Structure prediction request, 154 residues.
Amino acid sequence: MSSKRLPGLFALCCLGFAIPAAAQLDSSALRAKFGPPLNRETFHMPSGFDLIVEYGTSNQVCKLELPALMPTHEKTSNSSAMKQQMYDFLADLLPLPLRGQEMRRFMQIAGMISLSSVEYEHVTVSELQYANEPFSNNNTITVIFKNDTCSSFR
Prediction:
């Protein structure tokens, strides 16, 4: 290889390494394009599941998301008992005085997917369930708070 081609080849190699570095996204670029990120925390519960909490502008809880079934280490799983344990956890986290008076219940079914909701004065509790995947992590309970700072979550 001639010595005249080496500087050109070296410059081409350096350019090849510089292009991926320039193509990186950072927080500023994402914020400029999409606005501020959600204020979200994930709490890993001792029971073995994650509680995802989203906050509104005033740092009040606006949305909670958790699995529909309490995890178990037993070999034989009882989905109704696991669901009751998760609702017991939810009742401890959000007692009735915090939820307010029950307003209405409704259910929507589309094929193998169902969404059941209970609307209270201050929150709405919804359960998304995939009938063909009874023990899936896709089956979730979502709690949406109805205060003024949480209007974007409704």
Q: What stands out?
A: The CA atoms of residues 35 and 88 lie 37 Å apart. The helical segments are 5-22, 27-34, 79-93, 96-99.
